Every structure is written in C-alpha cells, then in structure tokens.
What we know:
Blueprint: E1 4-9, H1 14-24, E2 35-40, H2 46-58, E3 64-70, H3 73-77, E4 82-85, H4 101-118, E5 124-127, H5 132-141, E6 151-153, H6 156-170, E7 177-178, E8 181-183, E9 191-193, E10 198-199, E11 202-203, H7 204-207, H8 210-232, H9 238-253, E12 261-266, E13 278-286, E14 289-292, H10 300-319
Parallel strand pairs: 1-2, 1-4, 2-3, 4-5, 5-6
Antiparallel strand pairs: 7-10, 8-9, 10-11, 12-13, 13-14
Nicotinamide-adenine-dinucleotide (NAD) binds next to α1.
Amino acid sequence: MTPVRVAVTGAAGRISYSLLFRIAAGGLLGPDQPVILQLLDIEPMGKVLQGISLELRDCAFPLLEDVVVTHDADEAFAGADLVFLVGARPRGPGMARKDLLQANAGIFAEQGKALNRAVSKDARILVVGNPVNTNALIAIKNAPDLDPRQFAAMTRLDHNRALSLLAEKCRVPVTDVRRITIWGNHSATQFPDLFHAQVQGQAALERVDRGWYENEFIPVVQHRGENIIELEGQSSAGSAAHAAIEHMRSWVFGTPGGDWVSMAVLSDGSYGICEDIVYSMPVTVAGGAFKIVDDLEINDFCREKLTETERELLQEREAVRALL
Ligand code: NAD
Ligand code: LMR
C-alpha cells in the first residue's frame, strides 16, 4: 500500500514526543496503513531530532517506512498528505495564549509559504501551535494556492475537556454524550455550548443545573489550559497530542452518524460570524471534507458569547495584519 506522508513541525518538542510514536504505531491511520514521518524542528534542535529518529527506528514499527528529519520546511512538507503544525513557543504561567502572537506569528507566515510550495495538493493541515486560530489564519493567507478548507486549527482538546466534564457530572460514559460544540477562539473567551448537547439522547441542560453550567462548567473549560500549566509548570502535552490525533482521524475517516466535532475553520459567514477569521464551529465530516452544521438555533445567551469570542479574534487579526 502506498505510504501516507505525515509532516510534523516542532518534532523535538513535548507534544510531538507523544504524537510521533502513536502515528508510527498506527494510532492515526489504522493498522494497515504505512506512513512516512517528515519531521521539522529548528536547526539547534538537530541532535534531539536525530535522537528521536533513532528511537522511532528502534521501535521497529511495521508501518513506519521512513523517517526524514530536517530544519528545512520545504523538505519537511514535500508531498505531505497530512500536516501537524505543532512547532511554536508554548505559554508559561501567567501568560495568555495571545501573548504568544508576536513570538509565533512569523513561524506561520513562513510555513504557510513553504506549505504552498511543497505539500500534496489535497493535504490536510492542522494548526496546534498557539494562538491556534490566528496562526491558522496567517498560514492560510500565506498559502494562496491551497484551499483554505485544507486548514483547521485545533479546538478538539477543549471539545474533549467539555465532553469529559459533562459525562462525569452526569455519571455516564463519554460515549453517551453527543453534540458538544466549542465556538470561537481557543482562548478564555471560547464558548463551550451545551444548548445542543445530548446525554443519552436527552437535552444536556435537562440533566444538569443551569447554575452549574454557567458558573462552573463554562469557566472550567475556558481556563483548563492555564489550570494545567499551574499544576504541571508547563502546558498540556499528552492530552494535546491525543486531541490532535482525534481531530485528524475525524477529518480523514469522518464523523459518526448524527454527531459532530469542533474544528476552528475559516469563517464563511455562518451564524453571522465575520468572514476571514478562523473560528471554531460544529462540523460534520464526510469524504475527507468538513461541513459546518448549519441549522442550530442561537439564543440570546449564546449570541452574546459568540460575539465576545469573535471580537477577540478580530483584535488578534488586527495585531498580525502585516502578515496576512
Ligand atoms: P515545546 O516547546 O515542547 O515544543 C515546541 C517545539 O517547536 C520545540 O522543539 C521548538 O524548537 C520547535 N519550534 C520552534 N520554532 C519552530 C519552527 N520555526 N519550526 C519548527 N519547529 C519549531 O512545546 P509543546 O508543548 O510541544 O507545544 C507546542 C505548541 O502547541 C505551543 O504553542 C503550545 O502552546 C501549543 N498547544 C496547543 C494546544 C491546543 O489545544 N491547540 C494544546 C497544547 C499546546
Ligand atoms: C491548552 O489548552 O492546554 C493549550 O492551549 C496550552 C495552553 O497554553 O493553555
């Protein structure tokens, strides 16, 4: 079978250390699909990258056909079918994700150009490096020959956090919870929406108290990233790698009947959200392409939250205008 080329940036970093071994073991594309890993990091990380390449080979993964390590983005992206843009500085204690914008924005302008030159023409590209939404917008704008729908930014970790918290509260398995949505920015303004969620087929907001939803659930999901940083001294890595795998699996294999997932994608004006920002939406996937779920009722409470996170994304866009 023809191997799938999977490019990963920031390959010497913490998230990638969880991600790469799962991809090579078949955790991304299944037990029959060979892969070639194309790993990018900055030149000073060359020795670490070499070590990781040796470790990958030392696993003797039957599905791993080759490992390329490089500090040249064009080489890393050459012919890539699936791309994980992880390489970016993480935030530390006391920082907001948007504080990373100046440090990381330039990376996504350069890599957008390299993607435009090098990837397979139907590649799917997932941005994981923060601040994800605006970094994805920068990459999209610097890759004019690619379809913006080939890009998404990751809010699957927020989605999974919401799923797990609701399931725990209702004392049901996570598989009994459906139709969770994360709207907007992967930041503290994101809106975890339970108005359309279902628990065992029943409206989620009939199963939990509205006070718990507004005063505990929403802020816990919005601030989970900084909570992890306070506790671990560094940002989430295992859960982030898992979310990246799940996001890409949904994108490749589709969403199960009747359910949806959250992906931050270039707004097409759906739900009245301003075009030309990357905004997390509920999406279904079929045939490798996502479709925004388009018929949800948005009440006044939701509208206010959708607008607040939209406003923040518009401000982020202004801050990087020169790179778009
Ligand atoms: P890390 O510091 O451990 O690793 C980042 C790696 O990127 C480093 O090896 C670094 O050398 C590399 N890098 C820097 N500039 C690069 C460039 N131009 N090209 C290629 N590689 C480059 O960080 P991490 O914990 O792996 O996190 C990576 C990013 O993911 C951070 O921005 C973090 O905030 C973000 N993140 C996002 C989510 C999410 O839910 N979307 C979750 C967790 C972390
Ligand atoms: C997260 O949500 O855990 C990541 O985006 C890391 C962070 O900075 O919060």
